[in-house]
Amino acid sequence: MNSSAEVLIIGGGVIGCATAYYLAKKGIEVIVLEKNQIGEGGSSRNGGGVRQSGRDPRELPLAMYAVEHLWPILSEELGMDVEYYKKGNLRLAKTPAHIKILEGLTSRAQAVGLKVQMIDGEEVRKINPHLSDEVIGASWCPTDGHANPMLTTLAYYKNARKAGARFITGEKVLELKKVKGRIRKVITDHSEYEAETVILAAGFESRKIANTIGIDIPMQRVLLEALVTEAQPKMFEQMLGTAEADFYGHQSTHGSFVFGGSSGMDAYTSDYDRPVTTSFTASCICRGIMKYFPELAEAKIVRTWSGWIDECADKVPVIDKVEEVPGLIVACGFTGHGFGICPAVGTVLSELAMGEQPSIDISGLKYGRFKAKI
């Protein structure tokens, strides 16, 4: 088997699969390395939010571009229904402190052109009458939405393969190596690969891999858990979140609800190589559901699952060429925001790999922002 390619992508999540697709579509020879199975990490374990609201202004260009130009045509382009719904996002508040958080997020988003506004509790329940009276206000972005993360990852993977990308699973990347100052080799526990360009998009594992050539992306690993209910009568189509981002969810195409959240106990329960669910968080999420949606108090939980978030030090991703190591591109630290911007990130990474000027502004996401200032 040929162990060399023009571009080698480390990480077979939705970012890696999307990037492989956009590169292979342009005729670029691509290899994707994944230590487990395709989409096994956060790409198949998230809430499916496709939102612009509630984001740091530095990543808003990616989110806004994806919503305007990429998500609306993605199912048609990939030949698979990714269950994309553009029905808005309510980011909910229960206290005056929550309102203050949302007002700050809303004003910063409005300043860069996003159509989002604050609404009171009465207006919230006009949009979603199933919400309880505990909700006193929300931010409302009508152009936000949600999609199915597993189907989206699968669609990108299948189309990347059709276009010629090669995917190699079950190989763990151990080390990167430079040749004459440039990135050149990727060493796994099974083999050795060569490429002119390496894109590192392996979630939290990216930090350890980058460390092998003296590069560090300040990230920590955070556990989030999610659950899915049995199918319910159709209630609403909006994506939901909260001011403190401790609860999120939506109703899926076939009627089940997907909800996610955190108990704050992950630091004490997540010391494992693989993410595991706990009795703490599922019950915590359920209490939140009942406070927001009393109608769902009797809904049965079908299953729960958990996954790691690669939380960056300043809560926004690093998407950039690394000047110190020519040929190396990093895309990690997405802090739980990666799925909604995956089509835009894949587009930008393919452009960076081909030496093109990115068509979307990523100037606030540079690796160099963490360098010591002298």
What does this structure look like?
By secondary structure, the chain is of the alpha/beta class. The protein has helices at 14-25, 60-78, 96-111, 121-127, 149-162, 205-211, 266-269, 279-292, 342-353; strands at 4-10, 30-34, 49-50, 89-93, 117-120, 137-141, 145-146, 166-169, 173-179, 182-188, 192-200, 219-229, 239-242, 247-251, 257-261, 301-312, 318-321, 328-332. The strands form four sheets. Strands 1, 2, 8, 9, 10, 11, 17 and 18 form an eight-stranded mixed sheet that branches. Strands 5-6-4-13 form a four-stranded mixed sheet. Helix 2 crosses helix 9 (342-353). The mean pLDDT is 93.
List keywords for this structure.
alpha/beta; eight-stranded mixed beta sheet; FAD/NAD(P)-binding domain; oxidoreductase; four-stranded mixed beta sheet; 374 residues; membrane; FAD-dep_OxRdtase; oxidoreductase activity; transmembrane; D-Amino Acid Oxidase, Chain A, domain 2
